[in-house]
Amino acid sequence: MHPTRRILITGANGILGLATANYFLERDRDCQVFLGVREKRERAEALVGEFAGRAFLCPLEITRAEAWTEALSLIEAQGGPLNVLINNAGYHDDALLATMTQSQWSGVLEANLSAVFLGCQAVMKPMMMQRWGRIVNVASLSALHSPAGQANYAAAKAGVLGLTQSLAKETARLGITVNAICPGHIEGALPQEWTEEQIKVVKRETPMRRFARPDEIAAVVFFLASAEASYMTGASLKLDGGMV
Ligand SMILES: NC(=O)c1ccc[n+]([C@@H]2O[C@H](COP(=O)([O-])OP(=O)(O)OC[C@H]3O[C@@H](n4cnc5c(N)ncnc54)[C@H](OP(=O)(O)O)[C@@H]3O)[C@@H](O)[C@H]2O)c1
């Protein structure tokens, strides 16, 4: 028997985080979902209202180690230790390397990579005590096919894949799995600056001729966080409609 899943999803007011939270809440009636939020929280609040008693807001600035400690205490006080962490929060701030500022570089590295380190470290103790845990790190296709203008984001997300593999090896004997996903473009979450023409071109370049629905990505996260995904660790899954 695996324990009741108590799941923390960072960046849960965003497109993918929200869809993932909704996916867990609809399909696993026993789970409890903690929605990591910063200032923006209106969509996460609406989900908490919809699934009262099973979904909870969890203030969490992912780049601060103390914020992780506080978030885990809040979760523990709500009925028990965390056993699933979805490191989903992140952002990109694109520029050609020649003109990229140091703060563009370090901001993206901190939120997309160092914060994943902080999150994974924070959940080690509760997961080791339970001898069961699931960590899913949301990387990006940019980690594997680094586009021009994303040196910071691509480096950060590639770092997430390396971290995932190392940690998977460290925790494999403890019942804790650590996997990463590399989504391509997600419908409803495309870069705001893209024109209709650019969208058409990128869709044409995608073998499936469309972008992912957020629930298609959430479905994979759901599986990786399940008891059934017990022999899978250290993997990086490409979810990109067939881009190779
Ligand atoms: N969109 C895509 O096509 C795509 C493709 C591949 C991978 N991804 C990855 O998928 C994940 C989710 O992306 P999305 O499209 O759902 O983006 P989104 O809608 O912009 O959501 C990102 C979330 O991350 C939160 N966040 C960012 N920095 C944070 C910090 N320092 N502390 C706490 N929360 C922070 C944001 O909070 P605020 O709202 O408060 O800013 C927001 O809730 C990201 O890791 C992204 O890199 C996205």
Counted up, domains total 1
Mean pLDDT figure: 97
CATH class: Alpha Beta
Structural class: alpha/beta
Write down the overall geometry.
globular
Tell me the distance between the termini: 38 Å
Supply the CATH superfamily name.
Answer: NAD(P)-binding Rossmann-like Domain
Largest sheet strand order: 3-2-1-4-5-6-7
Q: Using DSSP, what is the number of strands?
A: 7
CATH level-two architecture: 3-Layer(aba) Sandwich
Number of helices: 7
What kind of sheet is the major sheet?
A: 7 strands, parallel
- Tell me the radius of gyration: 17 Å
Q: SSE string, helix = H, strand = E? A: EHEHEHEHEHEHHE
What is the CATH T-level topology? Rossmann fold
Helix content: 40-55%
Compact overview of the structure:
It is built from 7 helices and 7 strands. By secondary structure, the protein is α/β, with parallel strands linked by helices.
Q: What would your notes on this structure say?
A:
α1 (15-27) packs across α7 (214-224), α3 (65-77) packs parallel to α4 (102-130) and α4 packs parallel to α5. This protein has helices at residues 15-27, 42-50, 65-77, 102-130, 151-171, 196-205, 214-224; strands at 6-9, 32-37, 55-59, 84-87, 133-138, 176-183, 236-239. The protein is α/β, with parallel strands linked by helices and 244 residues long. It has one domain (6-239): Rossmann fold (3-Layer(aba) Sandwich), CATH 3.40.50.720. It is 43% helix and 15% strand. Residues 10-11, 13-17, 38-40, 60-63, 88-91, 111, 138, 140, 183, 185-186, 189 line the site of NADP nicotinamide-adenine-dinucleotide phosphate.
